[in-house]
Amino acid sequence: MTATATPPSPEDLDLGGDSRARGADRGFRGLVTFAGLTVLIVLGLILVTTTLRALPAIQEEGVVGFVTGTRWAPNDDVFGTFVMLYGTLVTSLIGMIIAVPVSIGIALFVTEVARRGARKYIVTIIDLLATVPSVVFGLVGVLVVVPAITSSYQWFADLVAPVPGLQSIFGAANTGRNYFTAGLVLAVMIIPIITSISREVFATVPETDKQAAYALGATRWEMIKGAMLPHSFGGLVGASMLGLGRAMGETIAVTLVIGGSFHISANLFAPGNTMAAAIAQQWGESSGLHTDALVGIGVILFVITVLINFLARWVVRRAEIKMKGAHS
Amino acid sequence: MKLNRRAIFGTITASTLAFSLAACGGGDDSADGDGEGVSGEITASGASFPDAFYAAAIDAYADVNPDLVLTYNAVGSGTGKSEFGEGINDFAGTDSLVGDDEGIEPGSYQYIPTVAAPITVSYNLPEVEGLQLSQETLAQVFQGDITKWNDEAIAADNPEATLPDTDITIAHRSDGSGTTSNFTTFLDEATDSWTLGAGDTVEWPANAVGGEKNTGVAQAIQDTEGAIGYVDLADANASGLVTASIENADGNFTQPTLEGTTAGLEGAVVNDDLSYNPLNASGPDAYPITAPTYIIIRTEYEDANVAAGVKEFLTWLLTDGQDLAAENDFAPLPDGLRQQALDALNETIAD
Fold this sequence. Notes:
The structure holds 2 protein chains of 2 kinds.
Chain A (H helix, E strand, L loop, with lengths): L18 H43 L1 H6 L3 E2 L4 E2 L2 H32 L2 H16 L2 H27 L3 H6 L9 H25 L3 H9 L4 H30 L2 H6 L17 H8 L6 H39 L1
Antiparallel strand pairs in A: 1-2
Helix pairs in contact in A: 1-12, 3-7, 3-9, 4-7, 5-7, 7-9, 8-9, 9-12, 11-12
Chain B lengths: L1 H24 L14 E7 L4 H14 L3 E6 L3 H10 L4 E4 L14 E15 L8 E2 L1 H9 L8 H6 L11 E5 L4 H13 L17 E4 L1 H11 L3 E6 H6 L3 E2 L1 E3 L5 E2 L3 H9 L23 E9 L5 H15 L4 H5 L3 E2 L2 H14 L3
Parallel strand pairs in B: 1-2, 1-3, 5-10, 6-7, 6-8
Antiparallel strand pairs in B: 3-12, 4-8, 4-9, 4-12, 4-13, 10-11
């Protein structure tokens, strides 16, 4: 009689099952690992090949000059991308300022206020907005929105003219193709993304927290502010960042309504340009150093999007730590 | 059971592959019944300026020789030339001459002039009709030196008009364009005030909006009150834009009409390689901003059938095809130049 029976190690154990099944298991692991590595390899290759291609143009200006230069003149081999950077940031910011409150409002409406039966339909309609192709948004923007909205811009500009600070931001609106219209189009495009994720996040708020707030005498808004929003803050930031990522990279819709001007202006009603739009406009007839510079713009866009993603993850983690810390 | 499913799946896959291969193998065997006329497919791309004319010509040519299928993509002179250099198209349309850094080897191409048309200066000011602009004022407007419509320089050119206090917005091409090249070359040669140089792209001032292709510029002018831009005649007419009269070399203000264009072409000097410059031509009725447009063909074609097709189409374009020009707002070539083009075509693509 043995004192203790040690079980045989896995390699010695014959669990039965034919060798074909074990082979298939190994094959499965290999395939899945390969798939995971492929993504990393592709991402790495994109970064490396674009940076190498863009090097001549970046060396021409120096990294600082390339990013902060305000003059873009391919004919003279002068490549300063600050105008495009500014345009991308401004239009994305306008898009976010318009879209985030609206999306959170829609998500709250769907989860809290709407009747149970109607929720399904509202959700379906919002998701339909996400399926509209970007170029259609651009066409509607340039053919319908631009002619109709210019007079409204001018009216608003005249309204805030006496206020000195606002006057430079909302200046003369000579054309409907400007930063603001681009921001508006972007807002409409990112609302479905932010809404659907926010909706999911709100749905995970524990019912007990909500009922507890009500039990303490909170009104619906106080319940939302006190129980739902703190719980969902991380998720909402994540959703907004996803929307921001889409807004920054949006090309064709913005190209059609941004106005293609290589001048920086504080006036939101002035035409401008974004990084993605500049690449789309000038790619066709570029050659040599000009093409390298356009690839360089792509690299900058890539890097900024990655940075924003990292920032978003960091914010979400901090918020979650704070939240869970408070709860536990 | 497993064997059965696998066998069925295998059979379906095999038969699908077999069918698709059979479908690919067919190719296009044209019924070369009458023996006349080349058959095949020709791909072309390039300038958007003459696109209205080329599209009408290709459409009409389908009745003349249905077996020769032509496609012309109006991607802009710059892209057309680079595609020509890469061998993607069989001939390219371009408004601007081939430069050194466009990827086309010298000696591998020949210019064939096809038509000409005026570049209109179209504007959007509902209250003002019959705007006249002298050459210097035009340069200053497009440079951003003059920013309001009621500026004294514009008022001096238009003593009877009441000009509003609207801001001027310049509408230009956001893509690389032969139209931009011709317009800026005119301003560069004819005026002293113009400082922005000439080329397919130019650094426009701050009060400017860009549009893609001629149609994009026409649209930008349409949606923006106080806009002024340069558009080819066909697109200006299609969008219902009002055109300004421009001062010509003789000092007369002329409208961008086909008669004005033909008057400009007649005075132009033709170079040996068949490029010519009708900009700012002399003559009392000449319209000064007349743009030539060319087709560049290869001096050597790999496929003899493609060469024959290109030659057949271009011969038609330079003979019967010229009749279509006027109804599409383009001016046909004067006889002397047309004959030179036909001779060059016959020499380059010998039978």
